[in-house]
Specification:
The structure holds two protein chains of two kinds. In chain A, the strands form two sheets. Chain A has a two-stranded antiparallel sheet. Chain A has a domain of 46 residues. Chain A is of the alpha+beta class. Chain B contains five helices and 40 strands. Chain B is globular, with a radius of gyration of 25 Å. About 3% of the residues of chain B have low confidence. The chains are: A alpha+beta, B mainly beta. At the A-B interface, α2 of A face loops of B.
């Protein structure tokens, strides 16, 4: 019984801890969506906080599903 | 603090003396036949007793006084009795034999609130509301006549009582008032069905007992009872809904010794985008939520203490969001059902604490209830990591009540309810829906109860003061004087009730100061700083007939409102959303009636036919209809009960038909709603000799009707409600008596 409990806790912990948030992101350019690709974790957080840097400008990223 | 501790020691000191009282439950036949294994639930103490094979029971470790009990036994009518504990006399409870099993399914007026409330109170067990399994608590509440819901997709729904919702409806969980920014149309009910045993509903103003804001009604959720003495009970339940691929899992355990009782529950729900009648999915209607609760009760000899903690956290998708320049239904739907986190979304967490202590003396009864609630609401509009709205609402509540039996026929109740609330916005969040503010409510009430024979007369008055200090140093204060009076005559076959009650509500800061898009309700909302306190007076009458095979109820009401605040759609569009503006009319009136019938024919004891009808009319002094009034509806149900002796038993099959009438009494710029009907079906059964395994299988919206409820916040976008939704629920429960010491 104890083994089952330990196993259950281990599996559920791994399931929760290994869940990394990734989303497909894009930015808008002249009315069209330009795909950036999948951003995860800190990279996604930085892109949302500071925008996505292009060569000469920084654009706002959109990562919601639609 | 020292004074408070001394006070606590004094009240706990009442536990010095207690004794045992013997009693018997008997039938009403000439031989006074004892009733074995009758169940006696002592509501005030949270205790359950079962009589022995000779109908006897022993009530130990309580002091003299009065207790209220709910008594039930197979083949007998349920009874609510006031037990007078007297060491010199044996308790005798008489039950009337039932001609056959006709439960009071339409209305039971004998819950916790009715004994102290002048208004009409309906009590429903959660299981009776959930005969056909419902995915959310608000869906279950819709089975109460006069109660509907406003919703934003599947994840956000809030109850509407006789056309009132939001800050006009108070929610209580046990004795704790719940606050969760309920003024917002998209801020759903703050509790789930986890561990809820029953719900009591007051339809109409109830400010006398509940203070400011209780202008539209009160929802009072009561936790499941503790297990019987020296018993462990447990259950695990899993369910699945096909329309949104929702999995719902919950478990609970109840443990009870001589004096100490503990209930604990935990649940997790995860829903993907829901499927419309067309077969497409509504994008971002997904949600996931987890809840836990624990109750710890301890019975002293003259008092009982309960501590309760409720936790909830959820991430609720907000559908109806698009960047399309040309917006139509296709902007909001998807062909790929998904449950991954998305934006816009609400992220909510709630912590509710409640400590109550009740003392029972010969002629006195005291209640001291202290509570604290914390609601954190984040609204992510475009970003996953950075909420646009981040509000923290802290609420501290206190309630002291003294009940004194002055005379055999007179009871006096005196109480004070106070609330201190802090609303704080995260300064980093770019949007502020409601300004930082501190609100203090102070209320005192007096209630007189006179009872003679079948007649009961109640009257009372209350004074309230609300003070609001806003962060910009502006202050508001509102006073309210409320009253209520009523009488009832409770006969064996017929009950008559009539009452008049008043209520008041100060405008919320959102009604005063809103100016922006409210994503959850899909509106651009404009506040109005000229709003004043709204008041209401309701006349309510009810007649209920309880015969052996027929139950009937008629409950007309008329609610006179002054300075009524309402939100009205306009013809303006800002940020691609229709503008809704807060307005106030000098006078308005809401009137209507609830009807219910329950027939259980002699020739077919296995058959139950129930039907209820509810209608509301609402108009201002110029006879203009008020906005967002629920559709008239007829809710009919056929239930066939079976008595099988096999291991696999079908207990009942239920078929429900709900017809919603066309709503064409609409305000300017409000959209009307076409009539529609929904068909629901379920089959409930058990497995095994001891019926430890229960199952339920069925479907809601069986005909896959495409419809939009009049109170759906997605209605202006033309987004339909959920399509056909099959469900299956499996529950395993156990009950182990005689805990080893």
């Amino acid at each position: 019984m104890k083994k089952v409990a330990i196993l259950a806790v281990a599996i559920s912990s791994l399931t929760v801890l290994s869940c990394k948030k990734c989303h497909d992101c894009h930015y808008d350019e002249n009315g069209t969506e330009v795909e950036i690709g999948e951003l995860c974790g800190e990279e996604l957080e930085n892109a949302e906080a500071n925008g996505w840097a292009l060569q000469d400008t920084v654009v706002t990223v959109h990562c919601e599903e639609h | 603090m020292r004074l408070f501790l001394i006070f606590l020691f004094v009240i706990l000191g009442f536990s010095a003396m207690g004794q045992s009282y013997k009693g018997v439950v008997i039938g009403n036949d000439p031989l006074k036949t004892p009733i074995p294994f009758a169940k006696i639930e002592l509501i005030d103490l949270g205790k359950i007793l079962i009589t022995d094979s000779l109908g006897r029971f022993v009530l130990d470790e309580v002091s003299a006084g009065h207790l209220h009990a709910h008594v039930s036994a197979n083949g007998f009518d349920e009874a609510h009795v006031d037990i007078h504990l007297d060491a010199k006399a044996k308790i005798e409870i008489i039950l009337f034999s039932a001609h056959h099993e006709l439960d009071k399914v339409l209305v039971s007026n004998d819950g916790r609130l009715q004994r102290e409330s002048i208004s009409n109170v309906e009590t429903h067990s959660f299981s009776s509301l959930n005969q056909i399994a419902t995915p959310t608590l608000a869906d279950a509440l819709e089975n109460i006549n006069g109660v509907t819901q406003s919703s934003t997709g599947a994840g956000i729904s809030k109850p509407v009582i006789r056309g009132f919702s939001g800050s006009r409806v108070l929610t209580y969980v046990n004795s704790l008032r719940i606050q969760n920014q309920q003024w917002g149309a998209d801020h759903g009910l703050a509790v789930t069905s986890l561990g809820i045993g029953s719900v009591e509903v007051i339809k109409g103003p109830a400010s006398l007992m509940y203070g400011a804001d209780a202008i539209g009604g009160v929802l009072y959720f009561v936790d499941e009872a503790y297990a019987m003495k020296n018993t462990i009970q447990g259950s695990v339940r899993t369910s699945f809904n096909t329309a949104n691929m929702m999995t719902s899992n919950q478990g609970g355990i109840k443990w009870s010794r001589d004096k100490l009782k503990i209930n604990a529950f935990i649940s997790y729900d995860n829903a993907a985008d829901y499927t419309l009648a067309s077969g497409s999915q509504l994008l971002n209607s997904r949600y996931k939520q987890q809840a836990a609760k624990i109750s710890i009760g301890y019975n002293f000899k003259k008092s009982v203490t309960n501590f309760r903690y409720n936790y909830y956290s959820g991430r609720i998708g907000l559908p109806g969001h698009t960047h399309d320049s040309i917006v139509d239904l296709t902007s909001f739907i998807t062909e790929t059902q998904n449950r991954k986190d998305n934006v816009p979304a609400q992220v909510i967490s709630n912590h509710f604490f409640n400590l109550e202590h009740k003392i029972f003396l010969e002629k006195h009864e005291f209640l001291i209830a202290l509570g604290s609630t914390n609601n954190k609401l984040k609204e992510h509009e475009e970003k996953f990591f950075f909420p646009d709205i981040n509000i923290n609402l802290n609420n501290t509540l206190g309630h002291v009540k003294w009940k004194y039996k002055m005379h055999e026929k007179f009871i006096l109740t005196l109480g004070t309810q106070n609330m201190l609330q802090f609303n704080t916005n995260d300064p980093i969040a770019p949007e502020v829906l409601v300004q930082d503010a501190r609100t203090l409510d102070i209320g005192t009430y007096l209630l007189l109860d006179f009872q003679k024979g079948k007649w009961r007369i109640k009257t009372g008055g209350r004074f309230d003061r609300r003070m609001i200090e806003v962060a910009d140093q502006s202050t508001f204060s509102f006073n309210g004087i409320n009253y209520a009076a009523g009488f009832s005559r409770l006969g064996k076959n017929a009950d008559i009730r009539m009452n008049i009650s008043s209520g008041f509500r100060a405008p919320t800061s959102s009604e005063l100061l809103s100016d922006g898009v409210h994503h959850g309700s899909n509106r651009y909302e404009l506040g109005n700083i000229n709003l004043s306190t709204e008041k209401s007076v309701q006349l309510d009458a009810s007649y209920a007939l309880h015969l052996s095979d027929l139950e009937l109820i008629v409950n007309p009401f008329m609610n006179f409102l002054s300075d009524f605040i309402y939100i009205n759609p306009t013809d303006s569009i800002i940020d691609n959303r229709q503008v809704f503006e807060y307005n106030q009319v000098s006078n308005a009136i809401m009137y209507g009636s609830d009807f219910g019938i329950h027939y259980h024919p002699h020739i077919a004891h296995w058959l139950h036919l129930e039907s209820s009808f509810s209608t509301i009319f609402a108009e201002d002094q110029n006879k203009n209809p008020l906005a967002l009034i629920p559709q008239t509806s007829i809710n009919s149900q056929i239930r066939m009960n079976f008595k099988m002796k096999k291991k696999f038993k079908i207990k009942n099959i239920s078929l429900q038909h709900i017809y919603y009438f066309k709503q064409n009494r609409i305000a300017s710029f409000e959209l009307g709603t076409n009539a529609f009907s929904l068909l629901n079906v379920s089959l409930n059964g058990t497995l095994g000799d001891q019926e430890k395994m229960k199952f339920s299988i069925g479907a809601r919206n069986l005909l896959n009707t495409e419809y939009i409820n009049h109170l759906s916040n997605l209605k202006p976008l033309g987004i339909p409600d959920i399509g056909i939704n099959g469900f299956i629920t499996i529950e395993y429960s156990f009950n182990r008596k005689k805990i080893e010491k």
